[in-house]
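Reopening this one. Same input as before:
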Amino acid sequence: MKDIKEKSEYCLNCPVKPCSKKGCPLENDIPRFIKAIKEEDYEKAYEILSETTVLEAVCGRICPHTKQCEGSCVRGIKSNPVSIGDMEAFIGDIAIKENYKIAEKNEENKDKKVAIVGGGPAGITASAFLLKKGYSVTLYEKYDYLGGLLMHGIPEFRLPKEIVKQTIQKVIDLGLEVKYNMELGKNITLQELEKQYDAIFLAFGANITTKMGVEGEDLEGVYGGNQLLEHNNHPDYKGKKVGIIGGGNVAMDCARTIKRLGAQEVKVIYRRAEEQMPAEVKEIQEAKEEGIEFLFQNNIVKILGKDKVEKVELIKTELVQKEGETRKVPVNIPDSNYIIDIDYIVMALGSKPEEFVNTLGLKLNKWGYINIDEQNRTSNPKIFAGGDLAGAKGTVAWAARSGRNAANAIIEYLK
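Same output, byte for byte:
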């Protein structure tokens, strides 16, 4: 408690709030919730955060704070930024311990029924904001648990599963009905949901790993990072050399998980410079401390092997500023190719929706995501979409923001 009080006193309570307005995808009122911590009114701090989020204990732990709220902190210009993440996690944890309520149950609009497909950050957040307004919400989840990538995509050492469960339980306590083991396209159809509900929100994510299109990608021993984390179906890494392609938090989670599972060597191969990595700085640093090697400004050319991965050919890159680009672009350096021994390759380059999304009868954009307008509406006015499925930015906070936006749009639609 004393440590949190000291951290709160470090905040200048800026009137312009760059941490909130510029840095936080959810636009949490950061100075105001920190002020409540200064006054040791933790329930008030939770109430303030609950105006914009329901994932305090989660986002406080895993958000890329140095690139978001703390990266916009005024104190960080000349010194260390305010420890916003630590304080948000503290409030989320104490809300669980003391059983603070997100809101009182509200049955004002209970005659209006909304179906949500997918129990990840977007679906959970949308459920909460609809329930707070009194709508009847039923969530369809393909697994026998909620949380999506919070449960199967982020390792326990970064985000304890029990914290996720307890955070989600607070949303369930608002009156959320959950139907587990229900997968769209398998045992429930969009047409069935349209008949039963006044509005539908699709939030089931996009978890098929993007490929690079290089020679050898189909060899045995090449894995998708998203699928490895989701299904936890790892090969035996003991004594093996593993290459991770990518620079985001999925790449860091794969690298650190695989190292802990006994790999002899883990190399993260990234075609840009370290400062351009989208992964949280803290995650990169901890990966280095765990013995993971980083090959910056290296691009993969081909994967070599007869039937399974044996080697990988890389080429060095230089960063060039090109017209129309906001950041420098990696360009291969001619004749800088070299080959290293590798037993497994893990692609962690982003993800795309599953093929069955093409059969839903909804308009898709050129990247294969469900096309939505500014109100998260699809080409079917009754159906809304958000999160990874609609190409939202790839962090938990942005997925949650997408869910909140969709909930507000559904509320307007149902009026």
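So the earlier flakiness isn't reproducible anymore. For the record, The first strand starts at residue 113 and ends at 117.
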